[in-house]
């Protein structure tokens, strides 16, 4: 369609020129004493057109002649630019493929070409960013080769280039890379120092939080690792199951690191409410508190949500967890410092009556009755629970309780049989 329009326009111009030139009787006379020159108007117009075309071509030729140095300079600049980009591609390709020596050499070629361009005044618009990336890739290759001297040299150059205004957006990446290198060198202190220098927004990114989590784990700083794991789980950097497992493991480690009751209570206060409702965490805290001779009432309070089932989102406690819960309560009831209150007696009796066939509840109720000197009721509950108990240690303690009850009744034979059964268990 465009060709047809151009062809029609050409025909129109030809017809208009023929009509104008064919009937044009005009004459142009030039006087140059003592001469006189008469020319037709058509010839004059044609001569003017030829002169204009000749002058235009001559000017273009002269302009092209004088622009040859600039064109040569642009060609050299374009050639060096292509060399730089090709070198960066080669560096990344070799680095991904594991050819670290070739990657470092390609990055050093890029740095050399860029330095030569900078010294000659032919710097590219993104020269600072290109130099930063080239030095960073060279440092990464040297790090993979365990060449720390070369790595530090290129890293310092990259950090210096990233400090300029044109490459300020790369400074965070350079610092994050330095933190990762420090972690791989088992230098958790250095990694934390680099992470502390990050801006607030960058420090909240997932990659920064992952590095902080790894640094805290490497430094055995459980509290910082727990905070980082919470944020990572919230940002869905971990799956729900994995995040819960990591948080549970760190909470247990935090509790086990306490060496006295005061430290344990501080560690418990540092946990969030959902973490305190985790069965393993609450049971570990209560067990540790009892081992450290802490407040028995506090231990019961920590496991009270597990007894009442206040975490509907968590799965039901396993048999082993229920056994641990019963042991914690049993140990708290057997303490000579505090007497079991009527509230707990009511709770246990209500649960035992609601599930009369549960041996763990029968055992716990029997133990509590022994503590409260309710000998007859204790004997009946323990006798019903012993055949159904699966835990050997719990069954042994049940027989010992039966032997104690027999001794209170002055039943020597019954006590001996109970001790014998406890020994077999």
Automatic annotation (TrEMBL):
Subcellular location: Cell membrane; Membrane
Residue stretches spanning the membrane: 45-68
Domain HemY N-terminal: 26-144
Keyword Transmembrane helix found: yes
Main location: membrane
Signal sequence interval, chain numbering: 1-21
Record has Ribosomal protein as a keyword: no
Annotated Pfam families: HemY_N
Keywords for this protein: Cell membrane, Membrane, Signal, Transmembrane, Transmembrane helix
Topology in membrane: Multi-pass membrane protein
Superkingdom of origin organism: Bacteria
Protein's name in the database: Heme biosynthesis HemY N-terminal domain-containing protein
Organism: Rhodoferax mekongensis
Organism taxonomic ancestry: Bacteria, Pseudomonadati, Pseudomonadota, Betaproteobacteria, Burkholderiales
